[in-house]
UniProtKB/TrEMBL annotation:
Protein family according to the UniProt entry: Belongs to the short-chain dehydrogenases/reductases (SDR) family.
A Pfam family of this chain: adh_short
Chief place where the protein resides: secreted
Organism for this UniProt entry: Pleurodeles waltl (Iberian ribbed newt)
Function: Unidirectional NADP(+)-dependent cortisol dehydrogenase (in vitro).
Alphabetical keyword list: NADP, Oxidoreductase, Secreted, Signal
Keyword Transmembrane tagged: no
Catalytic activity annotation: cortisone + NADPH + H(+) = cortisol + NADP(+)
GO CC, alphabetical: extracellular region
MF term (GO), any: oxidoreductase activity
InterPro entries xref list: 11-beta-HSD, NAD(P)-bd_dom_sf, Sc_DH/Rdtase_CS, SDR_fam
Keyword rRNA-binding tagged: no
Source organism, top-level taxon: Eukaryota
This protein's name: Hydroxysteroid 11-beta-dehydrogenase 1-like protein
Length: 256
């Protein structure tokens, strides 16, 4: 997404919990001479320590990071796209992991958006929330992950209503993604899911375009819109169809 935003001439602040990954992106952007990238890193290479885009933070750290953005001369787009790692397996009863993942995948989004509201109201900007089809339709082996994505839909859809009632011109774009061929996703589902993944670069461009157009929701791939909108039609039949895309031998099948 950073590369796409840069191509459109944006001035970008990058945040990451892994400094090496952040620096890699910065080097590519500077080599291409698209713009003078301003980078922000608040954690070391192992991901330890305080990093507001992992959700493991206090409010003051988020406020500090947001002040950096505003120091650029304003904030037009806040793109929320981080996730915590979660096992791709049947529910094991690990409530502590669910609590941690909710903090990373949901609460930190709320904290960042809350800190950015004043700046975004001034610029009539946008909040771009990267979510998943798992936040519209529940699928196997994603219990905790799905919970965080459903929470994002609920919070930001409600916030959109409140902003409209207040006359505050901030757009909220919810990005509903299907299976994307990121290294992380592929490492989790390889041999377990009988679906074709879609290119991450195209998904990133769809997110950028959706945010720029101030769309209410975008779906990538486009077929995801049918799954999203038809989620309450014949739910038992729908769930049966979904289960047919899973290799239960590889995933372990039933609960322990």
């Amino acid at each position: 997404m950073a590369y796409h935003y840069a191509k459109f001439g944006a001035e970008i602040a990058l945040t990451a919990r892994r400094e090496a990954a952040l620096q890699k992106v910065q080097v590519v952007l500077c080599e291409l001479a698209w713009f003078n990238v301003k980078n922000v890193c608040v954690a070391n290479d192992t991901g330890a320590g305080v990093a507001y885009d992992t959700g493991e933070c206090m409010g003051k750290d988020i406020d500090t990071g947001m002040a950096t953005y505003v120091g650029f001369g304003g904030l037009d787009y806040l793109v929320l796209n981080h996730i915590g790692e979660s096992p791709y397996e049947a529910w094991s009863g690990d409530v502590e992991h669910t609590r941690w993942l909710m903090q990373v995948n949901f609460v930190s989004y709320v904290q960042l958006a809350s800190s950015a509201l004043s700046a975004l109201a001034e610029s009539k900007g946008s909040i771009v929330v990267v979510s998943s089809i798992n936040g519209k339709v529940a699928t196997p082996y994603t219990t905790s992950y799905s919970a965080t994505k459903f929470a994002l839909d609920g919070f930001f859809s409600s916030l959109r209503q409140e902003l409209a009632m207040q006359g505050t011109d901030i757009a909220i774009t919810l990005c509903i993604l299907g299976l994307i061929d990121t290294d992380y996703a592929m490492s989790r589902i390889r041999g377990k899911v009988l679906m074709t993944p879609y290119p991450a670069s195209e998904a990133a461009l769809a997110i950028v375009k959706g945010g720029t157009s101030r769309d209410r929701e975008i779906h990538y791939p486009w077929q995801a819109i049918f799954i999203s909108h038809a989620r309450d039609w014949y739910p038992e039949f729908r769930d049966w169809i979904i289960r047919g895309f899973y290799n239960t031998t590889s995933t372990g099948g039933a609960h322990p």
